[in-house]
# Entry
Amino acid sequence: MKIGIVCYPTFGGSGVVATELGKALAAHGHQVHFITYNQPARLDFFSANLFYHEVSISKYPLFDFPPYELALSSKLVDVVRFEKLDLLHVHYAIPHASAAYMAKQILKTYNINIPVITTLHGTDITLVGRDPSYNPVVTFSINESDGVTAVSEDLKKDTLNHFNITKEIQVIPNFIDLSRFSLKPREHFKKAIAPGDERVITHTSNFRKVKRTMDVIHVFKKIKETIPSKLLMVGDGPERANNEKLCRELGIVDDVRFLGKQDAVEEILSVSDLFLMPSESESFGLAALEAMACKVPVVATNVGGIPELIVNGVTGFMSNVGDVDDMAKNALYILEDCDRLNTFKKAALNRAKKFELSLILPHYEAYYQKIVDAS
Ligand code: GMT
# Structure
């Protein structure tokens, strides 16, 4: 098939899933065209089946808010017509689903019927999409999509609860490429991070409020009081400065490293003993799956799609949002005994294997075929 993929080209989960899916589809013989405003962060190699079309927005003094959605719709019309695409797959409803709807209508005037699949990723439904300023457009463009997928059962339920949805939603969970995300021997790195053989705790995110990164610091402080440990904070975002300030106030700066945005997250996970994900909401928790694939157990909150990934007491633990005492207690339980830690590590990897790319990719391919056949 010739597939157009629209996504945010950033390190964020939806962009990562879209890019990894596109790469895997291309490796499977499909022709994949990424249509977005920047080269996607993980589109870092050349393949004969991969194409990138940049959406550029012309600047004009009148535009306080440059109309990206219109530029994207126009680009979609262009790429669908001239590359003769069979399907558009848009990741993250806002504004991609409505831009695709507009393109679809325009393409009808050229006698082209392009099927559109929208994949819901999380905050497009749980946070931003619910805002009254977007809700009617999100509802309409989901209902007008030819196919809709969600990354967890919980996200599907949430979508049906909060929007007036008439379309069937297919759940296709996030996936992991185990050939990239696996435990790698990085002893030199581990020695540099934890010279006294301390336990290494890791958190990766976009440091937005929803990730509750302050809780990461509080949980770590409690862990450190019992077990010598180091904390690696990977990523960047609005809460980072507050997090650094809190570390100074708690007197733990020497044990916390803020690494900023990193490409090779798997290298960092390879030296980690535990991953913390205390999010307020999380439709799936791809970062937790990446950790588990690298044999890192996860202490998280019991929200959204996380219970569909973590097996409580086996691959990690889940606590109520904000219950830092319980998260610290669970973390200590995992970390304090080497044999127990190893059991959790093995179980984390075994669970991650259920989400291996080669198992999930056929679900997308079958869904594409179904939607194209029905259009
Ligand atoms: O919150 C993030 O990490 C970014 C966000 C995004 O939209 O890029 O991630 C969402 O999509 C990911 C991929 O499907 C999911 O694994 C994340 O759980 C989800 N984030 C939230 O629901 C908060």
Q: What stands out?
A: The pocket of GMT is lined by residues 12-15, 17, 92, 121-123, 126, 151, 174, 205-206, 210, 281-286 (CB under 6 Å). The first strand starts at residue 2 and ends at 6. The first helix runs from residue 13 to 27. The radius of gyration is 21 Å.
